[in-house]
Amino acid sequence: MKHLIALAIKFVIITLVLLVILTWAFDVSFMNTLMISLALTALSYAIGDILIFLNAGKPGNQSTRNTIATFTDFIMALAVILLIGWLLTGEFAAMVAPALTSALVLSAGEWFFHQYVDRSVVPWYNEYKSAKS
């Protein structure tokens, strides 16, 4: 249940940011923005928040894990918005500025979302004890 709540929060954040930047500032259609939001939410949560964030360093070193996962989320957001935007609109060059702007804003938010994931979704992770110690 905690993962579903986190996914819903992430979807709302991504959708709101993309609506402001893509739809209002760069005139991308609402449906295209919604499709990009859905794809980015699923990929970013599975890869950036669960796979990379939890495995990018020692459990107690949240800052390192957060930095690596945030950078990965930036690259992933840039790629997903650019590629899906290009496929949906047919205009690659016109999607570069919106994708870059959106990725920067989203990655700033990801820093705080990772802290939420650490505290509320996987709080047991920081209490992990290695079998080697």
What does this structure look like?
- This protein is mainly α and 133 residues long.
- The chain has one domain.
- It is 80% helix and 0% strand.
- The protein has 4 helices and no strands.
- Helix 1 packs antiparallel against helix 4 and helix 2 packs antiparallel against helix 3.
- It is elongated.
- The relative contact order is 0.16.
- The model has no long low-confidence stretch (mean pLDDT 90).
Describe this structure in a few short sentences:
The chain has 133 residues and is mainly α. It has helices at 2-25, 30-55, 62-89, 93-121. The chain has one domain.
Shape summary = elongated
What is the gyration radius calculated from CA atoms? 16 Å
- Averaged pLDDT: 90
What pattern of helices and strands is seen along the backbone? HHHH
Given the structure, what is the number of helices?
4
Specify the biggest β-sheet. Answer: none
| Beta-strand residue fraction | under 5%
End-to-end distance = 32 Å
Q: Give the proportion of residues in helices.
A: over 70%
Low-confidence stretches: none
DSSP strand tally: 0
- Count of separate structural domains: 1
Briefly note the structural class of the backbone: mainly alpha
